[in-house]
């Protein structure tokens, strides 16, 4: 569970950068945290993020739970019960109704999902681009939990383009 605090990523990222500034520039720095981070959209709406790729990159386990959207029907139930003050009572029932369709706190699948976010951070560090448009690629930038589960756990592979990049990189390092 998260501590309930929401951090402005830009200010916090500056603090992380100062910590990493004196370190080896040829190292990929990745911060894993359970803290929630948010960025502001052009319309100044707050968006919770699972990861921000920068120097250093930051991945939030709480952001993985709270960032990508749960199934639309989940929010219908949440709004329905919240409007009559029953969400705290009904939340577990609603979660059970949609069990398996989203990542939750304490979810045994979190490690598999983290592998994909770590791969995105490494691709950002090496190639400058963490994402892929193909849903079957570990680098897919999922905005929905069900897409996240598909790309990170069901497919759990890189597309042909990113496999080729990895193969090229392997040959350069050999």
What's the overall average pLDDT, rounded?
Answer: 89
Biggest sheet character: 3 strands, mixed
List low-pLDDT spans: none
Q: What would the principal axes of the Cα set say about the shape? A: globular
Main-sheet strand order equals 1-3-4
- Radius of gyration using CA atoms only: 18 Å
What amount of the residues lies in strands?
5-15%
Number of helices: 7
Q: Please tally the β strands and state the result.
A: 6
Structural category is: alpha/beta
Helix content: 40-55%
- Our measurement of the CA-to-CA distance between the termini, rounded to an integer number of angstroms, reads 42 Å
Spell the H/E element sequence.
EHEEEEEHHHHHH
Write structural notes for this entry.
The protein is an alpha/beta fold and 174 residues long. The chain has 7 helices and 6 strands; from the N terminus they run βαβββββαααααα. The chain has helices spanning 9-20, 61-66, 72-83, 87-97, 110-127, 145-155, 160-173, and strands at 6-8, 30-33, 36-40, 46-49, 51-52, 57-60. Helix 5 (110-127) packs across helix 6 (145-155). The mean pLDDT is 89.
């Amino acid at each position: 569970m998260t501590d309930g605090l929401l951090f402005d990523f830009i200010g916090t990222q500056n603090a992380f950068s100062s910590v990493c500034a004196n370190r080896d520039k040829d190292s990929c720095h990745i911060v894993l945290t359970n803290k929630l981070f948010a960025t502001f959209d052009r319309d100044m709406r707050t968006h919770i993020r699972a990861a921000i790729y920068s120097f250093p990159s930051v991945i939030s386990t709480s952001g993985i739970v709270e960032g990508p959207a749960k199934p639309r029907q989940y929010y219908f139930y949440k709004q329905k019960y919240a409007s009559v003050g029953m969400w705290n009572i009904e939340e577990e029932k609603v979660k059970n109704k949609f069990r398996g369709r989203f990542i939750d706190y304490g979810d045994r699948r979190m490690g598999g999902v983290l592998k994909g976010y770590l791969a995105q951070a490494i691709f950002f560090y090496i190639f400058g681009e963490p994402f892929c448009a193909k849903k079957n690629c570990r680098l897919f930038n999922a905005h929905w939990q069900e897409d996240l589960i598909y790309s990170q756990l069901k497919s759990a592979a890189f597309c042909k383009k990113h496999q080729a990049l990895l193969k090229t990189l392997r040959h350069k390092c050999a």
